[in-house]
Amino acid sequence: MFKKYILVFLISMVPLVELRFAIPYAVGIGLNNVLSFIVAVVGNMLPVPIIYLFARRVLEWGKDKKVIGKFFMWCLVKGEKAGKKLEAKAGKGLFWALFLFVGIPLPGTGAWTGTLAASILNMDFKKSVLAILCGVLLAGIIMLVLSFGVFGSVFS
User: Using CA atoms, how far apart are residues 3 and 39, in angstroms rounded to an integer?
Assistant: First the structure.
C-alpha cells in the first residue's frame, strides 16, 4: 500500500500531469481519498521553490546547448508567454491570476508552468508560492470531485 502512495507522490511531481493525473489515479485504484489528496498536494508543491529559484537560470544556461537547447528554449518561451499573458490580463491582480492559472486544471497550466511564469515575472517569492499552493489545492479539489464523478459512473 505504501508503494502506491509513493507512486501518487511521484506522479504529482511530474510536469504537465502533476496532481491532475495523480488524484484520479489514486481514486481509480481505491486509495484513501484524504491521504491521497495530501500526498498529491505535497508532491506537487515540493518542486515549486526549486523551480522558482533555479529553473530560469538553468534554462537560460542551456538554451544554446546542442542536445538540450531546443527543449530549454521551448520551456523559456512557454514560461515567458504564460507570464506575459497572465500579467496582461491581471495587472495588479497578479496573485489572483496566478492562483486561477494554477487552480483551473487545464492542459499547460499547473504548478510547474505557474512557478516558471512567476519566476520570469520576478514576482515576490512568498506571494507566488502562496498563490501556487492555493491554486494546487483548488486544482486538487476539482480533480477529486471530477474523479468521483468519472469513477462513480464507471463503476456503478
Answer: 12
Cβ atoms of residues 138 and 37 within 8 Å: no
**pLDDT tens-digit readout, 63-109:** 999 999 999 898 888 877 877 777 787 777 889 989 999 999 988 88
As given in the structure block, the three cell numbers for residue 145 are 470531485
Q: Which residues of 127-151 are buried (b: 16+ CB within 10 A; e: fewer)?
A: ebbebbbbbbbbbbeebbeebeeee
3-state secondary structure of 40: helix
Domain ranges of the chain: 2-154
Residues 6+ apart with CB under 8 A from 5: 31, 35, 36, 39
What gap in Å lies between CA 1 and CA 66, rounded to an integer?
Answer: 43
Structural element, H or E, at residue 106:
none
pTM: 0.83
